[in-house]
Amino acid sequence: MDQGTRQQMPFSPVREFETVLHANLGLPASHRLDYGIPLADYGLDSLTAVNIMGDLEDRFQITFPDERITHSMFSTAGSLWDALAELLPKWKTLPSAVVADVVAAEPLTGGMANDVWRLTLTDGSRLVLKGSSRAPADLFPLEVEGLRALGGTGGLRVPRVIEVSARHLLLESMESNLPGTNVFWEAAGRAVAALHSVSADRFGWDSDGWLGLLPQENGWLDGGHEFFAERRILRYVREPKVRQALDSADVAGLERICARLPQLVPPAPGALNHGDLWRGNIVATAAGEPAFIDPAVCWMWPESELSMMYCTAPPSEHFFGAYQEVSPLADGWRERMPLLHLREHLSVLAHFGAVGDHVEKIRAVIRTFS
Fold it and tell me: d(Cα 361, Cα 365) in Å, to the nearest integer?
């Protein structure tokens, strides 16, 4: 964990909520509330319920709708908290120590796994808060490990981590509006080439990770062709929504591609990969330098990483030119980009089913390469 990163910080909204309940129910501050026990067992009566509701409305600056004020709302501390949380902005329900100091929260474009806000604090500083109530418990901790690998071993500029828990991640704020200059994209290309110069003799990672809300399988394998086939193509073919979107001929075509990978892709060592490298995961520092966010790290071919940059909202050609000045690519790399981009098409199908033109693009790759 980065020095200075705080884990399991106090949950400010819950602390305020519990303070109200302790005061009105006459409980000592040291008493640990059980959210499943009926509040009547704590001595709740109708007058106390009215006082609790009034205190919560004052403290959180909300109003409970009349239709929400029912006996069941006051059944337990858990049911009362659920009713309160429905009225709070999502960022206020996350376990961050800075929530009480926020004066403005600007929603940002996030991934499929979480919501994102840029927070402005009372001292004028800005931070980025990511959070979700449905994210896997290890999603944010694994993201921190990935950032640490990219910033340490990989030498990339990444945002500083402030806090992390199972439900949130608080980061240094970066600029999502990128400089529209060739200099920026050249610097990004050189940075990614330097990242890919860090090599390994195996493919995978020490643990599985996440791509969106689905596991990214990273079990170690000795060969890149086998790894790409098993962990990046066939792994998604087993997903229910992919099975629904593709027919048996599509699956057979993907299996033929997997068998032919040694003839289609030249051998290359494993390189340190960001793992989800597309334009949306490149941001800028205050000085206008490229920085990188939202990793799904692994050791894999450099070309498989570049396929996402090439096929998804590609950046300036200066990115690829500067990359090759540092690390020249093998002949035919552009022709291989659609093949190596299969992982992303399959991941979209696995999450959302047959949306957009992803099925047709998969079939085009099958026609070309199988």
Answer: 6
Mark whether 268 and 287 lie in a shared domain: yes
Which stretch of 30-39, 147-156, 186-195, 248-257 has the lowest confidence by average pLDDT?
30-39
At 5, is the pLDDT very low, low, confident or very high (cuts 50, 70, 90)?
A: very low
> Could you tell me the CATH number of the domain that includes residue 144?
3.30.200.20
Same domain, 131 and 51: no
**Strand 102-108 relative to strand 115-121: parallel, antiparallel, unpaired?**
antiparallel
Q: What is the DSSP string of 205-246?
A: -SS-EEETTEEE----BS-HHHHIIIIIIIHHHTSHHHHHHS
pLDDT at 14 (0 to 100): 77
Q: State whether the Cα torsion 243-245-251-257 is positive or negative.
A: negative
DSSP, collapsed to helix, strand or coil, labels residue 129 as: strand
Residue 180 predicted with pLDDT over 90: no
pLDDT given at position 9: 37
Question: Would you say the pTM of this structure is higher than 0.85?
Answer: no
Burial class (CB in 10 A: 0-12, 13-18, 19+), 176: middle
Two tokens, residue 178:
């990128």
| Shared-domain flag, residues 50 and 81 | yes
The answer to whether 198 and 154 have CB atoms below 8 angstroms apart is yes
**How many separate domains does the chain show?**
3
